[in-house]
Every structure is written in C-alpha cells, then in structure tokens.
Prior knowledge:
Number of strands of chain B: 0
Distance between the termini of chain A: 13 Å
Order of helices and strands of chain B: HHHHHHHHHHHHHHHHH
Structural class of chain A: alpha+beta
Shape of chain B: globular
Oligomer: heterodimer
Amino acid sequence: MQKKLAVVGMVCPFPLIEAKQEMETLQSGDELVIDFDCTQATEAIPRWAAEAGHSVTNFEQIDDASWTITVQKK
Amino acid sequence: MILTGLLCGALLGFVMQRGRFCLTGGFRDMYLTKDNRMFYALLIAISIQSVGVYALIQMDLIKFSAGAFPWVSTIIGSFVFGIGIILAGGCATGTWYRAGEGLIGSWIALFGYMAMAAMMKTGALVPVNNSLKDYTAPHNSIADTFGISVWPFIALLVIITLWVVIRTLRKPKVAIPSMKAKRKGLNHLLFEKRWHPFFTAVLVGLVALLAWPLSEATGRNSGLGITTPSANILQYLVTGDDDKFINWGVFLVLGIFLGSFIAAKGSREFRFRAPDAKTAVSSFIGGILMGFGASWAGGCSIGNGLVMTAMMTWQGWVSLVFMILGTWTASYFVFVRPRTKAKRQASAATAAATA
C-alpha cells in the first residue's frame, strides 16, 4: 500500500514529526510518499529513515525548493 | 572597508545555508531526539574561533575587553531568546538565512526581531533594557575570575571538543540515502553535495575568526554579531542617521541574506514560501521574543553562543546554557505536549468505542 503525506508549506521540524506519526499507522512494507518544501527536511527525513531502519525507495527534487521522498516501512 | 562586512556575511550565509547549520534545530534535537551532533558542531566552531582570536590578541593584532558580567539579564534574556527561536523556527542568523531562501515566515520573524531590538536599544523600552543591568558580577572573563591565563581554559575546551567529535565520528555509520547527483566538480561540491555538520562548523569557525580583524579594521572591536546590527538597520531607516547606525555589522547581516540567497538560488532551493496564519503569528511572536531576549542577554546564539563563548566569558557560556534550556522548554509545549495530548485523546476514544 502507498500513502501520500503532503507537508508542503510546513516548516521544520513539522514535516518530520508528521512523517513519524503517519508511519506508525502503516504496516511493514507499506510506503509513505512525502512531498515537502522545507529545505532542512532534505537532511532530516532521510536521516530519520536510515536511523529507524526504513528504506528510501525514491528521493528527488521535483522543482525549485520542492522535494519528494518515498520511505518504505521496515 | 565597511564592505568587507558584506563579504564576511555572504560567506557565512552561504556556508550556513548549504551546511544546514541550524542552532535552533540543534538545541531542540538534543531534547527531542537526543541528538547532540549540532551542539558538538557548535563546539568545533567555538574552539576554532577561540584559538584563532586569542592568538591574534597575543600578537597584539586585535584588542578585546570582556568588561563586567550582567548575570541576571543574561540568564533571563537568554531563556526568553531560547523560547523565541523555537517559535520563530530559527535563531537570529537562521532567520536571516532562511529569509534568503525565500521563507516569508522568516521575514515576519525578522521584522519582529529587528523592531523589538530597536525598541529595547534606542526606543521606548530602553528603561526595560537597562532595568537589570545593575546586577553585575565584576569579572566577565572566566580567566580573570580565577586570576590565571586564558589558555588553560581554551586547552580544556579544545580537548573536550576533540573528545566528543572523535567519539561521534567513530560511531558505526548508517548510510543516509541521498538524491542522485546531477552536477559535477565544483558545482556539485558547492551546490549539491550534503555537507557534514562538522565540516560546516569548521568553516563557520573560520568565518567567525575572520570577522574579528575585518571588523576591527573599521573600528568595531568585536566579532560576529547579529542583534545590534539588525536593530541598526531599522534605526537607520527611521532616523536616517547613517553616522550612528551604518557600520560593519549592518553589512554583515545583509551579507548573510545575500550569501544565503546565492546558495539557495544556485542549488535550486530558493522559492517564495508563504506560511499559514498560525505559523505567521508564531513567527512574529518568536521574532519579538528573540529581539527582547537577545537585547537583555547582550547577544543571540551567535553573539553570545558562538562569539562570547569563544572569548571565554561567563556571559557566553551562561547564556548558552539558558538559551538551550529555553529551547527545551518551548519544545515541550510546541512539539511534545500536543502529541501526548493527541495520543491520550485517541486512546480514550478507542477505549470509549470498545467499552
């Protein structure tokens, strides 16, 4: 299952807080697609994913100051 | 000569934007995620500056006098400042460089910060600003209190810093996923590659060191500073008195904005981003608390947290401690409590549903 989390417009650290919260509701193997535009999250979200043991299946810049990252729950 | 401030600020803004050097986030995460990396990075920047500046002082190239230590206003001001930077979503410098990234919320915070600092320094709130300045300890310099040279203290700081840095670097690393590189060479290194916070900290320390001789050459005897210069911009704009208010520091903070804009534009990270109403209000209140706190404390996270610490003063280190406590207090109310409350409500709801 894939779920989308739109946190565009949210400032740090809220995108990460929202992502963590959303992740708790998912099953192992589910994917969370996070669209965000807060620059610091380009560092904070992949770091959290790696440290929590989730895998990142997609991470790219879509436009000026907007990114998307897909995190698969471990 | 005054324009060297613009260069120094631009370097700082560039480095901070690309290195994601955020002290607010760093102090906050010490509490929220038990992550001390940014704090250790700050120690690196302080150490480099400390060794460098005291070497310059030893060579008689620059002068520094710590003066007395207004401890009550430093403690209260720093704590209030700490609360403010959480609400504003960035410290004074962080707000300047995020403004350069196009975040309108940071512009709002910046305005609150400038206005409040100007009111405290030359406006209606001067009596408030001065009200606690009588509570002073005679020595601000830690070395003077003990009546010995400053070097043993610097050596101690360097040893502690090396210890925590080496310990952190030795930890087993997790591979952090990154975006596919689209650029090559210098373009990749400057505008795309992720910088290690410790590497960024070394650069910040060097810029902070560079600030001393450049600023001194214009007759301004101190290093990096954000609050007074930010207030100076507004004071100049409303009084038109350039002799009094236009100085090296003003160009420094404008440089931070410019450097960050160049960095963000070059790496496709610039875009005007408008906050929602709640964030806008929080940014404004944060900015006001920042201006109020930093004026009372005699410095922000840069002036006290990075520069006065490097100068081995009580003001710097005491301020740093209370600033961090302020960010933790605000983090509890902004990030921790709403979540535990929501959780409790959710579990109460399920309990009611299954009952």
